[in-house]
Amino acid sequence: MRVALYVTCLVDLMRPSVAFASLRLLEAAGCEVIVPEGQTCCGQPAWSAGERALAADLARKAIGELEGYDYVVIPSGSCADQIRNVYPQLLADDPAWGLRARTLADRAYELTSFLVDVLKLSAVPNQFDGSVTYHDSCKGLRGLAIKRQPRDLLARVPGLSLKEMSECEECCGFGGAFSVKFGEVSTKIVDRKCDAIAAAGADAVVGGDLGCLMNIEGRLRRRGDETTRVLHIAEVLAGGEA
Fold first, then answer.
1. How many domains does the chain have?
2. Taking residues 36-64, what's their average pLDDT?
3. 221/172 same-domain check
4. CA-CA distance, 76 to 187, in Å (whole number)?
5. From CA 242, how far away is CA 235, in angstroms rounded?
6. Angle (CA) 163 10 26, round 5°
7. Is this prediction's pTM over 0.85?
8. CB 233 within 8 A of CB 111
């Protein structure tokens, strides 16, 4: 099975360990993994900003680079949602590109969904001695129905215990440019998330979207919490966390 790993911008620039952990997971599951060298942004920031033409250009670029593989796997609910749900909508008026967008969308999966729903993964290569609480990202949860998959995988990690936080499905306040444009509102939202994390009493907070995790970690540290680890689920499942 030939799988293209779509690294995502934030992972590439801010925490490459997530990409390497994803690679280890996929290879341990028996996949031949290729990281297309020319990959860039999926176009979500442009789409969210109303720059439809730019978003469409980036969609066509990504489609051209990612089609031809058995599957495309993305360690981000937000980028996976863009490829699966937005690309077919964005290119619907172009018969040729619309078909290519729909074909790619059918083969593109967020990482935990791919591991559970496609590969039916029964074991993971890492162990984790401690407790975690899981944050459900908005795009993954609402756009892709990702809820049980990460929890199924965490349950397979030797030594790990899951402590669910209250309002685990509530937004972290990131929302891409939202956190920049509406800083005060974003801070109030992420403070609620940090309160829930603290109340859960876990050693680490885990999620599937690096944007959420960066926002949460930044606020935890500003509030004086230097001990709660903030990890992408790939790092927990495969090891090599930052």
1. 2
2. 95
3. yes
4. 22
5. 8
6. 65
7. yes
8. yes
Task: Judge residue 32's burial from the number of C-beta atoms within 10 Å of its C-beta, 0-12 exposed, 13-18 middle, 19 or more buried.
Answer: exposed
Strands (E), the chain: 2-5, 32-34, 71-74, 108-110, 130-134, 160-162, 204-207, 229-232
What residue numbers bound the domain in which 18 lies?
2-118
Condensed to tens digits (0 to 9), the pLDDT of residues 142-193 reads: 999 999 999 999 999 999 999 999 999 999 998 877 877 888 899 999 999 9
Same structural domain for residues 31 and 92? yes
Let me know: does 111 contact 22? Beta carbons within 8 Å.
Answer: yes
Both tokens of 204, joined, read 């680490």
Q: Which residues contact 21 (CB under 8 A, 6 or more apart)?
A: 232, 234, 235, 237, 238, 239, 240, 241
Beta-carbon contacts of 117 under 8 Å, excluding residues fewer than 6 positions away, are 109, 149
Is residue 170 located within the same domain as residue 140?
yes
Assess if residue 124 is contained within a domain.
no
Q: Which amino acid is at 190?
A: V
* Cα separation, 134 vs 208, whole angstroms: 9
Among 118, 148, 182, identify where a domain stops: 118
- Please check whether residue 17 lies inside any domain of the structure: yes
